[in-house]
Write the structure tokens for this entry.
Amino acid sequence: MKLTFRWYGEKDSIPLKYIAQIPGMTGVVTAVYDVPVGKAWSDGAIIRLKNLCAEHNLDMEVIESIPVHEDIKRGCGDRDRYIENYCKNVELVARHGVKCVCYNFMPVFDWLRTDMYHRNADSSTSLSYSREDFEKVDPDNLHLPGWDESYSPDELRGLLAAYSDITHEKLFENFVYFLKRVIPVCEKVGVNMAVHPDDPPWDVFGLPRIVSCESDLDRLFAAVPSKRNGLTFCTGSFGAGRDNDLVKMAGKYASQGRIHFAHLRNVRWTDDKDSFCETGHYSKDGSLDMAAIVYALVKGGFDGYVRPDHGRNIWDEDGKPGYGLYDRALGAAYINGLFEAAKK
Ligand code: DNO
């Protein structure tokens, strides 16, 4: 595996120097953040990022994300033009050595939480999701932690309405339409597409979600069989779904050569319904058996990119929720240990 670390570009408060000092670190996972979704990126932006990484001996082989425009997900209006731009971006990043693109196909929202600063017993903070709090959210006056800066309540209302006729089936058709155009480009330029699972893995606000569980993945890979059509195996996202057997899924999709990227983190189920809280990476801290998952990945022949995922804010760090330095660095050290042990 190749250990990587998410870096939000030059605006990230975490210097590349610190990332490079984490044991076993090979590269960063990043993106161009200042171009609107659907537009083509420039050579200059990618070269700049790559050169900054190279100054610290860090590779830049994974992009997270090239976001998918809502018109593509809804299968309307300008989708062909946006898909064309998407393909251009894949070709562009491939020219600069990128091997894997992480993206998602979730309508409107990417991840969703009800608290970005849940206070844990040890006074660290982490992201959490409470079914009870979620049920109190008024869809007509949406204020969501982490999303208020991206959309106004009016825009959100409009977007939700625009999805009112998009069923799971329709979304799936639109997904396949997209992949059937993008994957041939990936084959030509040697890039793996790694879809990120729905987070959390169930429908929200009536919006369909179709990358939540094993049967979703089977259907997706059957529809577009190229191995370039693969997965970001995000343990925290799949793991919030109590019915997902992560050890089985890790082994199955690793041995099928579908896992190109793994986000490794733990969650603790906090009630008997859907609620969960993000924890440190260690198995004992949460509900997932991280050692068994890593062992299944290794046994299945997984040799892709890995990154520690959301950490807590610890040691008084005031980091971007989920993306501070300290707890993710601890996570990285733990992940190194799990892989070393699993391999030996
Ligand atoms: C959350 C991330 C996701 C991921 C996207 C990929 O912390 O894992 O936002 O980057 O779903 O498009």
